[in-house]
């Protein structure tokens, strides 16, 4: 019995001594640690973004008439030259047939007709036609001059709006309206040029007719000249009509996809009325709105990492192709007003085939250091006016001031204070301090 009590007493004494020893040394704090290594470290600007098309085309009504029902649906892919819509050609075809018949009649008269001497009322009527045709030609020329001025003004406005649009100042709607007006006035100018030709031919015909009456009607050359002038007038009108007929099949200017339809059912429309909007998928790019305080770090040509759900496990690379010159205000998801600047990113869409409006995530790499001494960013913390980490030293945490270079959400470059092979603590705990005893637990994959 005494021996058992003696053994128990020894055990209690040893336990008490051990407890006292542990109490004196302090508790052991389990911590995650990692070895300092070398790796590439980059600073970047991360932001949400979306894809868009660089080249878009608004397809307008080319001539007045009835457009047939447009069967193409939004999203349909079309090849260059494919028929997008048709304008009913019936009226134009009948006008062309009538004009061709009149030309044949005029050619038949050129063979010669015995014309009687003119009567007084015929001469007065011919003189009146000369005056009317002269006035009509003058009016046509004035309309042409006005159209030339309007077209020049529209052209200047179009180039000005295009520059503003490319600079992010003007809206897409303003740009498309300026372009539409410029094209419409250009078409009007061409029509008026032909109209002047027609009016001048009418004047020439009236003058020749008057000369025919007052001159020797026995000379059939006058009649031939009159009929030839009539033929030229009719041919000018036919040139206009045939040009309009060739435009009744509206074709795609490039390989593209239908982005939007403005007209569905058949209806009578005027020239310049928008029918649909096309986009060239080979010109897809990425746009992103960057905070104004961060965009100063970005330059054209900076590399860009592209990721997101639409890409799955794929990661694309691109580069900044444009930074808009002016910023704009935008309300964030939290309702905060922010000043942002739009940038564009070019990339190769040949393999992934992203569609316009697809959401992606981008990282614009503003600076990169290769093979830098690096630690996980979460291991660093502010210390006075600098930075520090906790290094593992003989089972204890050792405060180590460091100088940090590049830094992102994952990694921090260590310029001074650590060397590859040093072991540091990767997590901050309230109990952690300089000299605290620790139980290191190494992380896998070097903290990644």
Descriptive account of the structure:
With 448 residues, the protein is an alpha+beta fold. It has 6 helices and 21 strands. A 6-stranded antiparallel β-barrel has the order 2-11-14-13-12-15. Strand 18 and strand 19 form a beta hairpin. Helix 2 (90-109) runs antiparallel to helix 5 and helix 3 (120-166) runs antiparallel to helix 4. The longest helix is centred in the N-terminal third of the chain and has 47 residues, at 120-166. The two termini are 61 Å apart. Residues 1-24 have low confidence and may be disordered.
Q: Describe the sheet with the most strands.
A: 6 strands, antiparallel, barrel
Strand arrangement within the widest β-sheet reads 2-11-14-13-12-15
Q: Show unreliable segments.
A: 1-24
Round the mean pLDDT to the nearest integer and report it.
85
Percentage of helical residues?
25-40%
Count of DSSP-assigned helices? 6
Rg is 42 Å
Strand content: 25-35%
Order of helices and strands: HEEEEEEHHHHEEEEEHEEEEEEEEEE
Structural class by sheet pairing and helices: alpha+beta
Shape: rod-shaped
The CA-CA distance between the termini, in Å, is 61 Å
- Count of distinct strands: 21
Please give the structural blueprint.
Elements: H1 2-25, E1 29-35, E2 37-53, E3 56-60, E4 65-67, E5 77-78, E6 83-86, H2 90-109, H3 120-166, H4 172-214, H5 220-246, E7 249-251, E8 256-261, E9 267-269, E10 274-279, E11 284-291, H6 292-295, E12 303-307, E13 316-331, E14 337-347, E15 359-376, E16 381-383, E17 386-393, E18 396-407, E19 411-416, E20 423-425, E21 438-442
Parallel strand pairs: 1-21
Antiparallel strand pairs: 1-20, 2-11, 2-15, 3-10, 4-9, 5-8, 6-7, 8-10, 11-14, 12-13, 12-15, 13-14, 15-19, 16-17, 17-18, 18-19
């Amino acid at each position: 019995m005494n021996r058992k009590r003696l053994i128990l007493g020894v055990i209690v004494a040893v336990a008490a001594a051990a407890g006292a020893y542990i109490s004196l040394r302090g508790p052991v704090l389990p911590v995650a640690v990692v070895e300092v290594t070398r790796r590439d470290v980059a600073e970047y600007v991360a932001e949400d973004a979306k894809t868009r098309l660089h080249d878009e085309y608004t397809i307008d009504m080319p001539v007045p008439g009835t457009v047939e029902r447009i069967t193409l649906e939004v999203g349909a892919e079309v090849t260059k030259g494919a028929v997008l819509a048709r304008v009913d050609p019936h009226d134009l075809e009948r006008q062309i047939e009538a004009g061709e018949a009149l030309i044949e009649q005029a050619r038949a008269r050129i063979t010669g007709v015995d014309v009687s001497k003119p009567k007084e009322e015929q001469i007065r009527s011919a003189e009146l036609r000369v005056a009317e045709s002269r006035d009509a030609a003058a009016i046509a020329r004035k309309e042409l001059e006005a159209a030339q001025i309007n077209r020049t003004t529209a052209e200047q406005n179009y180039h000005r709006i295009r520059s503003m649009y490319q600079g992010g100042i003007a809206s897409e709607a303003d740009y498309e309206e300026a372009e539409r007006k410029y094209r419409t006035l250009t078409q009007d100018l061409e029509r008026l040029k032909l109209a002047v030709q027609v009016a001048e031919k009418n004047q020439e015909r009236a003058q020749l007719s008057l000369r025919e009456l007052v001159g020797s009607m026995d000379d059939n050359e006058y009649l031939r000249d009159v009929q030839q002038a009539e033929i030229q007038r009719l041919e000018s009108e036919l040139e206009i009509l045939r040009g309009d007929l060739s435009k009744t099949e509206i074709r795609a200017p490039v390989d593209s996809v239908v982005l939007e339809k403005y007209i569905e059912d058949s209806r009578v429309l005027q020239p310049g009325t928008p029918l649909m909007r096309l986009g060239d998928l080979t010109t897809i790019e990425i746009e992103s709105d960057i905070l104004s305080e961060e965009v100063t770090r970005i330059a054209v040509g900076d590399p860009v990492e592209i990721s997101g759900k639409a890409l799955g496990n794929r990661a694309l690379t691109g580069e900044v192709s444009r930074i808009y010159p002016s910023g704009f205000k935008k309300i964030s998801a939290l309702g905060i007003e922010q000043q942002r600047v739009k940038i564009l990113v070019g990339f190769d869409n040949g393999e992934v085939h992203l569609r316009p409006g697809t959401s992606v995530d981008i990282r614009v790499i503003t600076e990169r250091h290769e093979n830098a001494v690096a630690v996980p960013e979460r291991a660093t913390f502010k210390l006075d006016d600098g930075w520090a980490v906790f290094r593992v030293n003989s089972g204890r945490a050792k405060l180590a001031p460091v100088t940090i270079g590049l830094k992102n959400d994952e990694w921090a470059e260590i310029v001074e204070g650590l060397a590859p092979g040093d072991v540091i603590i990767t997590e901050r705990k309230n109990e952690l301090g300089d000299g605290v005893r620790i139980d290191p637990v190494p992380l896998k994959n070097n903290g990644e």
